[in-house]
């Protein structure tokens, strides 16, 4: 049996690796292949290519990384169609993976889409192209499930993988997390998470560093820490740090995102799953989205098409799950350095507000469901493949 995983960002890499970990125990003689990141590689998957740092958030960012990804897509498609696997397991990475679903399903491959994209601006009838007897979707959020069911797709639910992944870190005292990150115990820590995608980091890290500088001017005792995914290299951000971050006390942490979140008094986050990870680890945070100039223009283009993106919010995953803007979020042109710095300073100086946020985050943790999601996924894949 061959199982192929197609992963394009850090969170997908984390989830896929957890599934492979259980599959290796259930079926150690199966062959696991794919495209993905360092975690998937460490789980025992033979990778055709490394993807997370080069995926994109927003159509215009995708265009800027499109040549590399398009070439990878064409190579992957040709190889998979020439020698189809038993199971194809895409994880998020919608712009890439959606182009592989129906061709592989038509060849008899069983397609299990774990964590499908949110389909921003997509009407259910446009998703009917992905309805096929060989395609099963496994959403982890209610809005994904509802849209797929409206389209008539096969939908199964297994729970949220972060429940298992983050449980050990939730039990770690913050001071021990600081020791692991080699951060001082006597200073407040503000962590910066500019994203896992190369273009996203380039667009957002300068903004977060400028906000940090304003906070440092208010309190020179603050310690700042930059969190990057495990497949990153510090030299990728060195020019940005030299230009924007050389005047503040800043440490760089690669592959320690959960420890760093647990160690932080406040986190400044860009898009994606890290907002949910921060909430699960009860870290007071601020979320930032769509800050690139062309991505901001995309918001206006979608509005011209009849989709008002601003009405689709809240955008941060904790806020969408809770149905309330618990984590402050700034979208597009609203994400100015001045506004972000003012909100961050208010949170840093208001312990009651931070505690209230932590209490709401505790409620969110309960809503994610029971542990064992990735094991249940692995067990289903074994049963489905061996039918």
From TrEMBL:
<comment type="function">
    <text>Condensation of UDP-2,3-diacylglucosamine and 2,3-diacylglucosamine-1-phosphate to form lipid A disaccharide, a precursor of lipid A, a phosphorylated glycolipid that anchors the lipopolysaccharide to the outer membrane of the cell.</text>
</comment>
<dbReference type="GO" id="GO:0005543">
    <property type="term" value="F:phospholipid binding"/>
</dbReference>
<dbReference type="GO" id="GO:0008915">
    <property type="term" value="F:lipid-A-disaccharide synthase activity"/>
</dbReference>
<dbReference type="GO" id="GO:0016020">
    <property type="term" value="C:membrane"/>
</dbReference>
<keyword id="KW-0328">Glycosyltransferase</keyword>
<keyword id="KW-0443">Lipid metabolism</keyword>
<keyword id="KW-0441">Lipid A biosynthesis</keyword>
<dbReference type="Pfam" id="PF02684">
    <property type="entry name" value="LpxB"/>
</dbReference>
<dbReference type="GO" id="GO:0009245">
    <property type="term" value="P:lipid A biosynthetic process"/>
</dbReference>
<keyword id="KW-0808">Transferase</keyword>
<protein>
    <recommendedName>
        <fullName>Lipid-A-disaccharide synthase</fullName>
        <ecNumber>2.4.1.182</ecNumber>
    </recommendedName>
</protein>
<dbReference type="InterPro" id="IPR003835">
    <property type="entry name" value="Glyco_trans_19"/>
</dbReference>
<keyword id="KW-0444">Lipid biosynthesis</keyword>
